[in-house]
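From the shared-data thread, chain only:
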Amino acid sequence: MNLNQIYSSRRTGNNPNTVASRTDFQRDFDRIIFSSAFRRLQNKTQVFPLPGSVFVHNRLTHSLEVSSVGRSLGSIIGEFIFENRKSDLTEDSKNFYQHNLGNVIAAACLCHDVGNPAFGHSGEDAIASYFDQNEKDLKPKFSEKEWADLVNFEGNANAIRVLTHQQQGKDLGGAQLTFSTLASIAKYPCEAVARQKGIIHRKKFGFFQNEKETFLEIAKASHLISESEEPYVFKRHPFVWLVEAADDICYNIIDMEDAHRLGIVSTADCQNLFFELVKSETDDVDRVKRKLDSISNDNERISYLRAKVINALINKSLEIYKQNFDKILSGNLDKALLDIYRDENKSLKDIESFSIEKIYNHKAVVEIENAGYNVMYELLDHFIPSVLKSKDERKSYDKMALKLLPQQFVYEDGSDYQKTLGVIDFVSGMTDNYATDLYRKIKGIDIGMTM
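Structure, as tokens:
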């Protein structure tokens, strides 16, 4: 890939660039911050149930922290590209890599989760499972590729839709972000029918059929390497690896800190796991020990080690990215940066194994996943059958159900696929509390007027 061609300030919606004190990529960050899709992340589960007596991370606080890490990664790699590939760069590119790559990665990290439904990954599973379990009745209504989108519903693909799709009555181009920011969140730049386990850029899929033309514009402007055109498959953009690393660094470590604050993980276990990783990456273990000994509060001790671990993982991610830079540019790296590090450092592998056993399978986490799965499934079942009926076929209960759909999600003149995506937009955009509240009302569990 040509380093002068992989970034673009062009936006969805074909709006002309404007002269402003902020760069186009800084404006992306600000647009995301002020968007309703980002704001709703404050009440979407990251791992642990919300709310509680102990404050834990939600999707919004997680995204802010990922963005902070991503800005560091992007700024340092931008400087690395400037210093090591200076002779290959135009003057505009020199300015971009020195001053704006950090802004692109920060913005992409900020919006990487906007397509995730309520209740964590169980929300994604519920949407996919709804179509899978109703295959006999629903599959004939869709093309093969449309059906693949639905039965493999994916938050990453939904993020592209949330950020680019023009809802009814709203402006063209969605959030109107630059193609650089959008390309940076496309971890799986392929169609759903091209999914293939074991291949990093095809493990899941990156865009719905409805957004295919938009994604092809993004791919063209960002000069993504094409692997196939039927179905469409591209190699990852070089910036994706940095967004992915920032996300992996944060969730691996922050989930452990949250579990400690909730009393799920003991101070001794958490401290030992963090300290082993820090010890493997520092030349001054004694200084870390002295600092720990000076802190008497357990939460503060863990916070200190968490900061040291994140710093160590940032440095390792940068090192691995630089070592594999040519492979990344050619689209030939086949493993995530932290996966490469995990293979060479037992400490990170131990943290992950411990988290799976003690945190992600904890009763409170499993309960919220089960509850969330049922809530999301039932909400879809309330709307999908009714929206797919023609106006003449709809009974009074169908009409009543559809009155609950906000107008921006109603596509009466669209195909069955577009009507269905409208319902998914509504349901997947809900916060945990709103989804639960609506579920209780339509099931008759709560009856009464609330505003």
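The radius of gyration is 23 Å.
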